[in-house]
Amino acid sequence: MATVDFQYINRSTETLFDIATDVISLLRSAHETVSVAESLTGGGVMETLTSVPGASAAFRGGVVSYATPLKHLLLNVSADLIAREGVIHADVAAQMAEGARRATAFDGSPATWGIGTTGVAGPDSQDGKPVGTVFIGIASPEGSRAWGPFRFPGPRERVREATIIEALSKLRDALIARSGGDQTTA
Q1: pLDDT recorded at residue 13
Q2: CA dist., res. 98 & res. 47, Å (int)
Q3: How confident is the model at residue 1 (pLDDT cuts 50, 70, 90)?
Q4: Which residues, in sequence order, are CB contacts of 154 under 8 Å at separation 6+?
Q5: Residue 127: CA atoms inside 13 Å, Cβ hemisphere, count?
Q6: Distance of CA 185 to CAs 20, 26, 102, 113, 177, Å?
């Protein structure tokens, strides 16, 4: 009888709902809020956040700026940047996150945090960027930052899901870092 060597591969069983629950819990415990500006995810980040019970205490709202002109018109993304680089760019993601904070301001107060997602879900490339190229921006009162380019493989649905997971994970990491490090949630 032949022996078979199995290699253990460490995989996370964490779900998208788990990540969103952590984000809402961290925001609520810090008395902070979040708003979202989405392009390729088409409202998926907002849908995921609002699936968590109690999300209304931390989630302000957002903008789906699927059409390129809306990024400038609704979120104040630099028209020069869009003309020069296209919308699939790190600075666009960061400016979208900043725009999300401003777009949901009321009583003179923007949301504490903003998320911006921009990329190519497919089936065709855009602005010379291949399908699966994604940038994610996170904004806070201290400024904004972008990550990417990510290269998420797979069909359109998988690229969008991977973007939502990564965006919420980046916000969770920022919330934990801001609170002083390791923090167990939910």
Answers
A1: 85
A2: 20
A3: low
A4: 132, 162
A5: 18
A6: 11, 7, 28, 18, 13
Spatial contact of 113 and 70, defined as CB atoms under 8 Å apart: no
Helices (H) and strands (E) in the chain, counts: 6, 5
Cα dihedral value 161, 166, 172, 174, nearest 10: -150
Find where tokens 């973007």 sit. 163
Could you say which DSSP state residue 34 is in? E
End-to-end CA distance of the chain: 47
Q: pLDDT averaged over the chain? A: 93
What CA–CA distance (Å, rounded) separates 81 from 147?
A: 17
CB atoms within 10 A of CB 180: 7
> Which residue type does 92 have?
V
In the predicted model, what is the mean pLDDT of residues 163-181? Answer: 94
Structure token digits, residue 116 = 């911006």
Candidates 100, 90, 87, 109; CA nearest to 31 is: 109
For every residue of 100-152, DSSP letters joined together read HHHHT-BTTB--SEEEEEEE--SSS-BTTBPTTEEEEEEEETTEEEEEEEEE-
d(CA 88, CA 148): 10
